[in-house]
Amino acid sequence: MGKHNNLSVKENFIHGLFFLNGLLVVVLLVGIFALLVAKSVPAFKDISISEFLFSAKWNPTATFVPPSYGIKSMLVSTLFVSIGALIIAIPLGIGASAYLSDVAGRRTREIVKPVIEILAGIPSVVIGFLGIVLVGPMIARIFHIPNGLNALNGSILLAVMALPTIISMSEDALNSVPKSFEEASLALGATKWQTLVRVKIPAALSGIIAASMLGMGRAIGETMTVLMATGCAIAMPTSFLQSVQTMTSTIAIELGEVPYDTTHYYALFGIGLVLFIITFVVNMIADIALHRYQRVVK
Amino acid sequence: MNRLRVVSIAVLLTLLCAGFCMAEEKMIQIKGSDTLINMVQKLAEVYMAKNPGANISVTGGGSGTGIAAVVNNKCDIANSSRSIKASEVEQANNKGIDPKRIVVAIDGLSIIVNAANPIDKLTMDQIGKIYRGEVKNWNELGGADSPLNLYGRQSNSGTYDFMKEVVMKGEYSSSLKSMNGNAQIVEAIRQDVSGIGYVGVGYVKDAIGIKVLNVAVNPSMGYFSPLNEMDVKNGNYPVTRPLNQYMNGVPKGAARDFIIFELSKEGQEIVEKEGFFAIPTEYQRYNNDALGIKWDVGESPVVKYSAQGRDGA
Question: Where are the domains of chain A?
């Protein structure tokens, strides 16, 4: 009896501990959100929300004209760079994952998969460095433009950073398509290519969408790489070959020296809040897609 | 035997602790301007070689970041290519910090273009128009028909502020590309035939593929080059500025010792070797007052501007 009691105390303790760990994540998330809201609300005493979201003029340190706090051009820049990254990364990611799950032999897979995982571990500052010395000059030469620090450069680098997530998650999705689907398709006389493109990829589509969304979530929040490689011009972007400044770059550049408790300081938290909401929505979409895919597979 | 061991360990620990405490005292943290970073790093290296106990760390981040660190008591010395702002002094005073300024070198802020650009001189007025975005093509300035690409620094840079307040007297064009530092601007201009940028004179001395423009306030008075020491020191070159260091109160101990080394003849020779200019007499007097000491100022050219001059804090 005593021993049994002991066991259940231990069990309860461990149960409680894990519950607290789980709770901690929720508390952190709510805490971060609350902090962002609390710190950005004072900004809107001086700035109207419509100016903040829909004006393309950002110059909080202006001294010769009244300061302006419009984030539209940064918002568009962030979308430019991350959607550009997705356009590059999704076809490559699906191709690579299809290759790994259906074409590659066991040995190739055993070499390639860890390499992809290493790619995920490269520090963003190193990728940004490559953007300055390698990708930038290449873009400049290909498009005959004087400088390669632009949205396209950022997109390429972010695509490289999003690829590991997209590849490994899509591969999981392709692998969990029931074997019977594939066998049925092959039995009906479809080629391996037709089976992959018409059966397996559609069946795994919501998993692939989830993978892409998580990749995009990473791209939107990435800071160091875009700060180094996109040229950081605050003007409204009109093409991928223009220098852009994303929301993350602005926070990184300006938060270091902004005087505390000023409109500028609160406005930077406002940008953080917008960024948080965007990544939250993107991750939600990924989550919903993932659930749908799990239902389909079951 | 055992007691001997205990005693010897105790002695060792005491010595170790004393060593750490002394090392702690000699640790100097310097933070701020990317324009000054290489020069101050070099000064620190030579100083540390001469003073084996000294330990100096020099990091960048921009003048604003450096001054903010002094204001928040996070570093000993801030490198700054601009003067401290009134708002920063007020913030510092509220926290019980008393910022003191030392001038370590003189910079002729250099306006650079690609070596293939036919333009080789500009007026202050033209530079202002270019960076305010009022001139958009080189042909408006007598150059080739190609759009102007503006390269500058990020808003945490003292050079960014200096250009805005002193040269442009207006706001930057929104098409300004903000680079991480002087070296990145030099590299961008080397590749961009239609680019224009500004960097500290210490970054143009050995650079290839770029051209340093001569600048005039008034064309009839002549154009001057920042590479000419006399023109920078006597103020003929119009974009001249002091490179500063800020600290909390009159520096004491290791920090004071290092600053005195920076201002010494040997320190100033390093400054010149790094491509910047030694401080003229006016600033030497200013520094002496700030440090509360007297020493031989040596011979220096007569200068037209006073220590409080055009940058007046």
Answer: 2-40, 53-297
Residue B302 has pLDDT above 60, yes or no: no
Closest approach of B54 to chain A, Cα-based (Å) = 28
CA atoms within 13 Å, Cβ hemisphere of B108 = 30
What per-residue confidence (pLDDT) applies to B305?
31
Flag if B169 and A233 touch (Cβ within 8 Å). no
Q: Rounded CA gap, B261 and B267, in Å?
A: 6
Tokens 């101050």 sit on residue: B40
CATH for B110-233 is 3.40.190.10
pLDDT tens readout for residues A90-115: 999 999 999 999 888 899 999 999 99
The chain A residues in contact with chain B (CB within 8 A) are 57, 59, 61-65, 73, 132, 137, 140, 146-147, 149, 227-228, 231-236, 243, 245, 253-254, 256-257, 259
pTM value is: 0.81
Rounded CA separation B42/B267 (Å): 10
* Angle at CA of residue A227, ends A224 and A233, nearest 5°: 170
Residue of chain A whose Cα is closest to the Cα of B180? A228
User: A5-9, B152-156, B173-177, B181-185: lowest mean pLDDT where?
Assistant: A5-9
C-alpha to C-alpha distance for B241 and A125, rounded to whole angstroms: 32
Going by C-alpha positions, the residue among B288, B283, B313 that lies closest to residue B301 is B283
In chain B, where are the structural domains located? 22-105+241-291, 110-233
In angstroms, what separates the C-alpha of A42 from chain B's closest C-alpha? 20
Average pLDDT over all residues of chain B: 85
Q: Answer yes or no: do A256 and B62 touch at CB < 8 A.
A: yes
User: Domain B22-105+241-291's class?
Assistant: alpha beta
For range B162-172, the mean pLDDT? 93
pLDDT of residue A2: 53
CATH homologous superfamily of A53-297 equals: MetI-like (1.10.3720.10)
Q: Specify the range with the lowest mean pLDDT, choosing from A82-91, A151-160, A232-241, A289-298.
A: A289-298
CA-nearest residue to B188 within chain A is A147
- Helix, strand or coil for residue A103? helix
Average pLDDT over residues A218-230: 91
SS3 at position B282: helix
Closest CA of chain B from A213, distance in Å: 30
